[in-house]
Design a protein that fits this description.
The complex is a heterodimer of chains A (197) and B (596). With 197 residues, chain A is of the alpha/beta class. Chain A has 8 helices and 6 strands; from the N terminus they run E-H-E-E-E-H-E-H-H-E-H-H-H-H. In chain A, strands 2-3-1-4-5-6 form a 6-stranded mixed sheet, with helices on both faces. The longest helix of chain B has 22 residues. Chain B is globular. Chain B has 23 helices and 22 strands. The chains are: A alpha/beta (197), B alpha/beta (596). Strand 2 of chain A pairs antiparallel with strand 8 of chain B, so a sheet runs across the interface.
Chain lengths: 197, 596
């Protein structure tokens, strides 16, 4: 018996804007009249650590998505996608930005960063669908690398029970006016990427 | 009107809806955002909001405000209550005037703490009520109620959210804001406010008599709902109630549920519930506080009741829960198969770890580099709590116990007979919080140690809050600026010198002289936190590796800055470089240059 309309885990590296888009989705859910619950990791933004946010749309229970319960894994970084892949349900969908961010354990030569196919292979085996693309490059096309998270938000819009206009409205309320245009472009590019596949 | 609010922001809203006049606290995850969410309203709502020097100060200041007739709240993380425990325990005797709410955020699983202690034990210890919210809405509503309860009982009241309430977000229904009380007044009453033994004894008697009034007051609150169904029952505390409701719905189970949101739990309600069932599973995070109540009540009202919980091994006594863990515990009670927790072993096998690290350009990395060069890795490095603790991989963090313990543990290691060099390290905010007594003790009792005070002019780890050394208050007003240099001298240290963390040779030279000093030496390594500098508009030219000069020795890579990589046979500086220039000083081949 479902206790939530849509369970999402949003993952990435501190500083990529995981909290910002989690909040945009949450606000959009509120605007749509859905009860919504979220849980965040604080303090990792400047320290480049691993970030995991939970988001439950149409839910009135606890904010944590249990392992194996996520309908969607929204991953702003590929290694983080695999690190948290166990949250996905068998019918779940993974949306993955393929642009890697090397952790200090790799840049100082203490660990190896696996190639993309080694990361995506196990991911493809445990869920229904994986859409992987370079959202950072799309953000560059939009005009600002910082909008990568919004590219991913655009991709997500194709999978959540929320209206696109509501998401854009919530997004516009969460960022400075001068950045709205470039973010709308980023959103569109993310959306189109899913439609094209 | 609903808003999508962070739990701590919802609590802040509750403080405003209750018409509080004073809000205090010390930064600490997961409580920091409460004061930060109230601060913007300080002027408009005529509130005094402050970051206090430490939690004991925060609680005492809030007490003073309460005793003057003004509603007040003191906020802190769970270990902060340890610091505030002295006033906390005796406040139960003195009582309050304006409502006093102590808001303490617990951290099950120690996401960002040295331990995962259970604040409900403090409520039992002090004999005062504790409210345990399950979500941001309850946190807000309980906060408003806590002030009323405090005044009705003449007791401080504990509000105890946990990480998954404080840092959760939910749609929250807002109430109206209330003005703070006008005409505050401190009414003299030595029998109540002066805890001499002759006054304390009758106040203790009074406190014990109040326990019945506490039970009566909590009997009718809306946060202890129960549903009677089958003979198997679950009793839960706080957020575990939500996990339980979800699990029961998913299992479609015929289980009676009693959710407890207030401590002490309502005896009549519990007894009625316990008499209806034959087996109970008690689900709560951390300590078996509720379980112990249930055992006691069962002995009186249903001695044949089978009690499952931590004692029986059905529920863990450590870490945090989620709906899957709770679902499995309930399935076990129902003799249903438990679900395996999904785990992807490939992830652990091939992925590099990504722990939080010191930022590119962090002054602490530079300071520790110099410290280690001067003292050598054979020295002992007691340390403390802050961003700098992340330097544990640099080999310069040998201990971390609690706020301020760096200096005192260092002294103790020396007095205990350790002969090697000892250099402890402590941040500026930590030093002002709890380091002053330790440094005074080290001077007074003659500890031959070196104390490195890492002064980056902020309280960084918890979100860059100001402190008395920064010259600004939480509301951004200018104020007096404490001089750590002058303090160290005034406390009795004979060797006190300052260095710029980014001046590697200067720092090594000063640390070397401090090491040789036959007494207590203090080195203040001063350099702005890289993030605060950037936010203030400071822009430094980045650096680049001259691959012709680079010999591939990897000294810069070992420095550990996230901006330094190694590609092919030479080092490479990536886009994260903040321009601190420390790696250029470390390089022995003049292979790192500033980009002109």
């Amino acid at each position: 018996m479902r206790t939530s309309e849509c369970d999402i885990v949003v993952v990435g590296v501190g500083g990529q804007g995981v909290i910002l888009i989690s909040n945009v989705i949450g606000k959009a859910a509120l605007k749509s009249g859905l009860p919504v619950r979220g849980a965040e990791t604080h303090g990792m933004a400047q320290r480049g650590g691993s970030v995991l946010n939970h988001l439950r749309l149409g839910c009135e229970y606890g904010p944590l998505v249990p392992a194996g319960g996520a309908d969607i894994l929204l991953a702003l970084e590929p290694a983080e996608a695999l690190r948290y892949a166990h949250y996905l349900s068998r019918e779940g969908v993974a949306l993955v930005n393929t642009h890697q961010v090397l952790p200090a354990t790799v840049t100082t030569g203490k660990a190896r960063y696996p190639p993309l196919d080694e990361i995506l292979a196990p991911l493809r085996k445990i869920c229904k669908e994986v859409k992987a693309f370079d959202a950072t490059e799309l953000a560059a096309t939009a005009g600002n690398l910082q909008t990568m998270n919004v590219v991913m938000l655009g991709a997500l819009s194709r999978y959540v029970p929320l209206q696109e206009e509501t998401l854009i409205e919530a997004l516009s309320e969460s960022i400075k006016t001068k950045f709205i245009e470039v973010n709308r472009r980023a959103f569109e590019l993310g959306k189109k990427e899913i439609d094209a596949k | 009107m609903k808003e999508y609010l962070l739990g701590n922001a919802a609590i802040a809203r509750g403080i405003l809806e209750a018409g509080a006049g004073v809000v205090t606290g010390y930064p600490g995850t997961p409580a920091s955002e409460i004061v930060e969410s109230v601060a913007p309203f300080a002027k408009k709502r005529n509130l005094h909001v402050e970051w206090s020097v430490n939690e004991k100060v925060a609680l005492e200041v809030a007490s003073g405000a309460s005793w003057a007739g003004t509603r007040a709240a003191a906020t802190m993380k769970h270990v902060g209550l340890n610091v505030a425990a002295d006033p906390f325990m005796t406040l139960a005797y003195t009582g309050v005037s304006g409502g006093l709410v102590v808001i303490v955020s617990d951290d099950p699983f120690c996401h960002s703490s040295q331990n995962e202690q259970d604040t409900r034990r403090y409520a039992q210890f002090a004999n005062i009520p504790c409210l345990d919210p399950a979500d941001p809405q309850e946190a807000k509503d309980m906060c408003v109620y806590a002030f009323e309860l405090s005044e009705a009982l003449d007791l401080p009241v504990l509000l105890r959210p946990t990480t998954r309430v404080s840092h959760a977000r939910a749609d929250v229904e807002l109430g109206g804001l209330k003005e703070r009380r006008s005409n505050p007044e401190f009414v003299k009453d030595p029998a109540k406010w002066v805890m001499l033994p002759a006054h304390a004894r009758p106040r203790h008697t009074e406190l014990l008599k109040k326990q019945e009034r506490i039970k009566a007051a909590l009997a009718d609150v809306p946060w202890n709902p129960f549903v009677l169904r089958g003979e198997l029952g679950v009793i839960t505390s706080g957020i575990s109630g939500l996990y339980t409701e979800e699990a029961i719905k998913q299992l479609d189970a015929d289980i009676s549920v009693l959710r407890i949101g207030t401590f002490p739990p309502p005896e009549e309600l519990c007894s009625e519930f316990l008499q209806h069932i034959c087996t109970v599973l008690v689900i709560e995070e951390l300590e078996p506080v509720l379980e112990e109540y249930v055992e006691r009540l069962a002995r009186l009202h249903n001695p044949d009741l089978s009690i499952l919980g931590k004692m029986s091994g059905h529920i863990p006594r450590e870490g945090e829960f989620d709906s899957l863990l709770v679902r499995n515990a309930i399935a076990q009670m129902l003799d249903l198969p438990q679900e395996e927790v999904p785990v992807l072993k490939e992830a652990d096998e091939i992925l590099p770890s990504r722990p939080p690290a010191l930022c590119p350009g962090c002054s602490h990395r530079a300071t520790y580099y110099a410290m280690r060069k001067a003292f050598s890795k054979d020295a002992i490095f007691p340390s403390d709590i802050g961003c700098y603790t992340l330097a544990v991989r640099m080999g310069t963090i040998d201990t971390c116990l609690c706020m301020g313990a760096s200096i005192t543990v260092a002294s103790g290691i020396r007095f205990g007979g350790e002969e090697r060099d000892i250099c402890c390290s402590i941040g500026d905010s930590t030093f002002l919080h709890a380091g002053l007594p330790g440094l005074l003790n080290a001077a007074y009792n003659k500890a031959r140690i070196t104390v490195a005070i890492l002064d980056n002019s902020t309280t960084a780890m918890t979100g860059h809050q100001p402190h008395p050394g920064t010259g600004f208050t939480v509301t951004g007003e200018e104020t007096s600026m404490a001089s750590i240099n002058a303090i160290a001298r005034a406390l009795g240290a004979d060797f006190v010198e300052m260095v710029d963390s980014y001046d590697v040779n200067g720092a090594i030279e000063t640390f070397t002289r401090a090491k040789k000093f036959p007494g207590l030496s203090v080195v203040i390594a001063k350099q702005s936190c890289m993030i605060t500098a950037r936010r203030a508009g400071v822009r430094r030219r980045p650096f680049v590796v001259n691959t012709e000069n680079c010999t591939g020795c990897k000294k810069c890579v070992q420095f550990g800055c996230p901006a330094i990589e190694f590609e092919g046979d030479s080092a490479r500086i990536n886009a994260l470089c903040s321009g601190c220039g420390v790696c250029a000083q470390i390089c022995e081949n003049k292979a790192i240059e500033v980009v002109e």
